Fold UDP-MurNAc hydroxylase.
Amino acid sequence: MRIDTAAGSILCDPWVNPAYFASWFPFPDNSQLDWETLGQVDYLYVSHLHRDHFDAKHLRDFVSKDATVLLPEFPTSEMEDELRALGFTKFLKAPNEQVVELPGGLKIMIQALTSPTDGPIGDSSLWVEYDGVRLLNQNDARPADLSVFAEFGHVHAHLLQFSGAIWYPMVYELPQAAKTAFGKQKRERQFDRTWRYIDDLKADHVFPIAGPPCFLDDALWQFNDIHGDEGNIFPDQSVFLAEYAKVGGTNGIVLLPGSVAEVTTEGCATTHPVPVAEFFANKTAHLEEMRERKRAIIAAEKASWRHPEVDVLGEMKRRIEPLLDESIYLAKGVGGPVRFDLVGTDDAGGETVESIVVDFPGKEVRPYADEKVRYRFRTERALVEHLLHTGEVDWVNSLFLSCRFSAARIGQYNEFVYAFFKCLSEERLQYAEGWYDEHERAVDAEDITIGDWVVQRRCPHLKADLSRFGIVEGDQLTCQLHGWKFDMASGRCLTSVGHKIRAHRADATATQAG
């Protein structure tokens, strides 16, 4: 998205090239826009380092290096370091949640989210004001609430995510009926969260952005929402409008590549390169044409992955074991071995499988020894060879988001597994360990009442305000921000290990007081 004002222009998250092992492409296709012109801007804002937001090749080739980068206040310097390596030299480090006035009366504020589960150590939203018109580019950030943005006046344009951006439940080795059921739940939670944010901010106009991706490789084609699968987690913008209408939403505006929306305090006038309804009515044809056009790009990417010279077990030991030695909270949180089944081919063309275990209690990487594991991932050996060859420090936002794997687990979701594999560097690991240490020690003393229950105000997961996001049904509480569930009677988290909640029945409080 590009924001133009009389006081300057801001280019936000320009993503054009495929991401995550050539699995994700932007949809609708924006690669044929005039990027030579669009990249000549005064300011650049990249919300976070996910590669469907941080497109290094496009930033290097098409965005003016005279642009000043509006930099979120993240806990590590990775984003600034990567942008400097691409040739950017001008940075404005925005203090978190503080309004900064730029020349000409343009005002911006950036809210940075900094838990280890927010992007790879960070996600953010951008608030912009010029001449009394205010815009919030929330993209796919998930703040606990939006009150900080509303404090500075009524927002006229709210741009936010509504679609899925993960591998669950498609990659899990489950019966199709179970995948569909879990997918329906995920799809409904996504929309529920979106309605909550929209209701919080009450902007004049709502723009669905930040998704969905499309999948053009033949091996991933089934993930596109064109097959009548009610459990598909990647609904598009036209589906958003239909679902939004069901809850009374009448102010949604869809943008296509090349669309222009002129937002004022009085309204919004939008022009499109083609009619929006007509475009989505022909979605399958657009995807098929795009697939043929991008085949050579996917083939070239695939040809770069294989690195038979890499000793996978040896390199995993060298890189991961020192991090296991230093890990306290993440290793304890994982609590057991995690297995990788790496699939390759022998000289005769037959399938080979090498099974490697990352043993968190034992603090080592070793061959699989036929023991029981709670988490298992199966993927092409070439993908892990490529991760090790390139020194990738975030396997979650590369391998896992590619959906080029299958997974199985016993028991509940374990966020610590994914937190660790996002943090395969000294800097990231130390930050994550410190974050969990700080939050482990923090005592949330404030209570609220929801229905018949008294419960701590902040969700034990990522501190969402349960007065806004908490829903109680019987003895079960659901935090709508991420869909986490808790058994109120025992305090046990039903979604993941750990994260016990403090709760008791309201009538018990009255009895104690009496």
